[in-house]
Structure formats: C-alpha cells, structure tokens
Design a protein that fits this description.
Elements: E1 7-9, H1 17-22, E2 25-27, H2 37-42, E3 71-80, E4 90-94, E5 120-124, E6 130-136, E7 141-142, E8 150-151, E9 154-160, E10 167-173, H3 192-196, E11 201-202, E12 213-216, E13 219-221
Parallel strand pairs: 3-12, 3-13
Antiparallel strand pairs: 1-2, 3-6, 4-5, 4-9, 7-8, 9-10, 11-12
C-alpha cells in the first residue's frame, strides 16, 4: 500500500518545455506490493474451490429431511448495462431460514435452527445470463439499532466473474413486505428508484403448481439502471 501521494517524474532527456507540457510520466515513490491472489480470494465468502455441481442451486434437496417454510423459486437474468447476458458468472446465495435465523456463529438471536436447511447455494449463469434457485422464503429478523429496526425478508446474492476479486454483492427483497420502508440497510440507499430495483416480482409462469411460488429478480451490472450493490 502506498503511504505517500504519487509524484511527477520527468526523465532528464525530456527537458524541453513543449514535452513537459505534453507528457507527464506518473510513478509511485515506493515499489509495488504484490498481493497473493489467494489472499484476495480468502477475503470473500467461499463455498469451496471445486466446480459447481448439479443440485448446488437446490436448497430444498436433502436426503434426511425437508426444510420448514414456504418453498419458492427464485430466478432471473444477469445482464450488463447494454442488456447483454453475463454468461458463466458464479452466483452464491445465502439467507436466513424461515424463522429468520442464519446458520452462523454470529447469529445469537433466540430463534430456532432448522436442521434441514443450510441457507447456502450456488449456481452458474447460463448462455442467456439466466439463473435459478429453489429455496424457502426467509424470515425477518431484528436489527439492534432500535425497537422498530427489523431486516425485511431478503436473500444475499454474490456475483463473481473470472475470479473472486471481481465480485459484487446485492440483496433481493420480496414485493409487498411492509418492513422494506423501515429496513435499516435498504433505507441507506437515497434513490427511491434504486431501492425499487432490489424488489423482486411475482412470476406465476415459473411457479410450481400447488408447491412453490416463483419470484423473478433480474440483475443489471452497471449503467443507469444498475442493481444496487454493497460497498
């Protein structure tokens, strides 16, 4: 990491006033620090370095039992600012269970753990940038700021390009949730239109009759209509 601002250095042979006005060579005062790629990778949530397997996007399929809660389908497309599909992107999902409890040591809320639900999954986008998850609708959970601060029902989605250093994280909300307007994370986004882009929409075409409601959540990477991401 550089501790001093960059300075301007002009080689001795380039001493004419015209060259000084037309060209500046910017160089750091200290040598570059090479960061091992594995250190960058380790700074992000990792579900393993192996290839994505069939069924990794199905959070409902367990040989020992079925998770409690409302079963849902979550799907959509990932595109760039021009509407072109983002193919082969790794999407990782993590969420609370139906009671609003994460399978994580940091979640100390007095809510039940579902032994049949890990709350994590992953998939790769297809040729048209499409993705799909089968999961359960997560529960809301309290935030510690004040009595009325609760997180709305939401899913976390991490999108990685060629490596985990090319990574964006966003959240998907559910339509009609009364907690959205009070959510302490969502309300930090000043642009109302941007907040709306975090809300999925019902999609009856993709629903499974009498089993699962479907929600569509398209993700736009960049541009005026970009999906908000965590900084």
């Amino acid at each position: 990491m550089y501790t001093e601002p960059w300075n301007i250095h002009i080689a001795d042979e380039f001493t004419t006033p015209a060259f000084r006005r037309a060209a500046k060579v910017w160089v750091p005062k200290k040598p570059l620090v090479i960061v091992p790629s594995r250190m960058i990778d380790a700074s992000a949530p990792v579900y393993g370095y192996g290839e994505v397997q069939e069924g990794d996007n199905d959070l409902l399929s367990r040989p020992d039992g079925v998770p409690m809660g409302e079963q849902i389908i979550v799907h959509g497309r990932v595109t760039d600012s021009w509407g072109r599909p983002a193919r082969g992107m790794l999407i990782e999902l993590w969420q609370a269970n139906a009671a609003g409890k994460y399978v994580h040591a940091h979640d100390q809320t007095p809510k039940p753990i579902d032994p049949y639900f890990t709350g994590t999954g992953r998939t790769l986008t297809g040729a048209d940038g499409e993705y799909t998850f089968r999961t359960i609708k997560p529960g809301a959970y309290p935030w510690t700021q004040h009595r009325e601060a609760w997180r709305a029902q939401h899913l976390h989605l991490s999108l990685s390009g060629r490596g985990l250093s090319e990574r964006l994280v966003t959240q998907m909300l559910f339509p009609g949730d009364p907690l959205i307007d009070r959510d302490p994370i969502v309300t930090t986004i000043p642009d109302e239109k941007a907040r709306e882009r975090l809300i999925s929409r019902l999609d009856w075409e993709a629903a499974i009759d009498q089993i699962a409601i479907a929600y569509r959540f398209d993700i736009v990477l960049g541009g005026m209509h970009a999906t908000p991401v965590e900084r």
